[in-house]
Design goal:
Layout (H helix, E strand, L loop, with lengths): L1 H22 L1 H4 L11 H27 L3 E3 L20 H20 L7 H19 L2 E2 L15 E2 L1 H6 L4 H13 L17 H18 L7 H10 L10 E4 L15 H4 L2 E3 L1 H9 L4 H5 L45 E5 L1 H13 L7 H15 L22 H12 L4 H11 L24 H6 L1 H10 L15
Helix pairs in contact: 3-4, 3-16, 4-5, 5-7, 5-8, 7-8, 8-13, 13-14, 13-15, 14-15, 15-16
């Protein structure tokens, strides 16, 4: 009997202990130093920095090859337009989706928590900016069902580029909603983690309105956008000078210097002046050649020499000393470089183009000259006193003003090589060259291919997108580029 009593007592103790442990299990096994959600200020800084740093590197290594600013001497299948073989760069897909996903967390936090409402406007503006880059590089992409992972689906459908631009929740809609969110914000919480504008909400509105101009011009061949662009110009609340640029500074030393400064010397020396860039800058007697590149080692009088893009490195012997490396600002002195999101010169080149095409009532020459002046200042290069009255004089000596505007914009865009390539596809300027040993039937690509992991991880939706692009063909134009 005594044994049974003890047995019952022991059993009750065990049950009580189990229930007691279960009751406190969550509390005991929760790390008080691990937050359950990330602060939007930390996410905002991460998104701006990670996107700016990684896409600056991507723009230099791969975008500059597509835009023919530089040429790759080796590891250059990408330069020969085998775009499915990224080497030192050429895979922006994960950069774009990772940062769009992290930015979506900021937007969700802002919409769900009134105290964080100050983050809604900037996160919408960043979403529009990065989505624009994504669809302009690839065309139709996962969008409306993307960026949220397990909350919706890990196999999102592909949205058309037209819908990404024009429909609710798309690029233009998010820019408008972002502006409205900022202008209606009356809370006391300040915007933290903002390494673009240091929390200045008015600057974010200027950025958004400059992006409206950028993306409206991008689709101007498909949509009637004159009224909207004229309204933006009349309002005059866009990025107007270099002090208002949407950029953040790299440093001379690690960890926040330009990534090219951290590459081994052999990788850096893989990129030399393109023959296309060389000819354009030389014909203009443009001193930015001395800023962006350096004389080739075998030169005797400080000369520069470019190489035609897309050589067959396995069949061609190239001496590095015969070609110009990129300038010291990209390696030895990267502290003068910016991660460039949007600038005054880009805005004014777009306005000059709009004026020349009679989309707005404005003096195209004045806007062009202001843009050239600001682009020289951006690159820290002195503008020759006669540059705008001789070699770069607007519409003189039989020059096509649109070609002048687009070529000058292309020159200044070297840090954003993908952007230069995208604008070439939109405008046809400058005249890029057929490459040396093409792996794309001597055609210049007009879109990047979807990466191989999409076929493996999102096969059913990828198969539809593949069919719509003639087998993921890099020669199939995106929506705004179609006649």
């Amino acid at each position: 009997m005594i044994y049974k009593k003890y047995k019952v007592l022991i059993t009750l103790c065990i049950i009580a202990t189990v229930f007691s442990c279960t009751k406190d299990f969550k509390e005991i096994n929760t790390n008080p130093n691990a937050p359950v959600s990330v602060q939007p200020s930390l996410l905002l800084r991460q998104v701006i920095y990670d996107y700016g740093e990684q896409m600056s590197y991507e723009g230099f290594t791969a975008g500059n090859l597509l835009g023919q600013y530089t040429t790759a001497l080796d590891f250059n299948l990408f330069d020969r337009h085998d775009l499915k073989s990224p080497q030192l760069g050429g895979n922006p897909w994960p950069i774009l989706y990772t940062n769009l996903r992290d930015n979506e967390q900021i937007l969700t936090l802002a919409l769900e928590n009134e105290t964080l409402a100050v983050y809604e406007g900037p996160s919408r503006i960043l979403k529009a900016y990065m989505a624009g880059a994504l669809t302009d590089i690839f065309g139709d992409v996962p969008y409306s069902e993307a960026f949220k992972g397990k909350d919706i689906t890990v196999t999102p459908t592909y949205d058309t580029q037209e819908s990404i631009y024009l429909e609710e929740g798309g690029i233009l809609d998010n820019l408008e909603k972002g502006i409205t969110a900022i202008e209606s914000y009356n809370g006391s919480i300040t915007l933290e983690g903002d390494i673009l504008f240091n929390g200045n909400l008015d600057a974010w509105v200027r950025f958004a309105k400059s992006l409206q101009l950028k993306f409206l011009m991008r689709i101007s061949g498909k949509e009637n956008v004159a009224t909207q662009i004229q309204a933006l110009y009349t309002e005059n609340n866009f990025i107007a000078n270099n002090t208002q640029n949407a950029t953040f500074d790299f440093t001379d030393g690690e960890p926040n210097n330009f990534r090219l400064a951290r590459l081994r010397i052999g990788d850096f020396n893989n990129f030399v002046l393109s023959e296309t860039m060389d000819e354009i800058l030389t014909n203009l007697n443009d001193p930015r050649l001395e800023t962006l590149f350096r004389p080739f080692s075998n030169s005797t009088t400080g000369e520069y020499n470019g190489l035609l893009n897309g050589i067959d490195a396995s069949q061609t012997s190239i001496a590095l000393a015969d070609y110009s490396l990129t300038g010291t600002i990209f390696r030895e002195n990267p502290g003068v470089l910016d991660a460039n999101f949007m600038t005054s010169w880009e805005t004014k080149f777009l306005l000059a183009e709009a004026a020349e095409k009679l989309l707005i009532s404005a003096n195209a020459q004045t806007l062009y000259e202001q843009a050239v002046e600001e682009s020289f200042a951006y690159w820290g290069t002195t503008l020759p006193v006669n540059y705008l009255t001789t070699v770069a004089a607007y519409g003189q000596n039989g020059q096509n003003p649109i070609e002048q505007i687009c070529t000058q914009k292309w020159i200044a865009t070297m840090i954003n090589g993908y952007e230069g390539w995208i604008e070439y596809r939109r405008t046809g300027y400058p005249n890029l060259k057929p490459i040396s040993a093409s792996l794309n039937n001597n055609l210049l690509p007009v879109r990047m291919p979807y990466p191989a992991e999409e076929e493996a991880l999102n096969s059913s939706n990828y198969n539809i997108a593949e069919e719509n692009t003639d087998g993921n063909n890099i020669n199939v134009k995106v929506w705004w580029d179609q006649d």
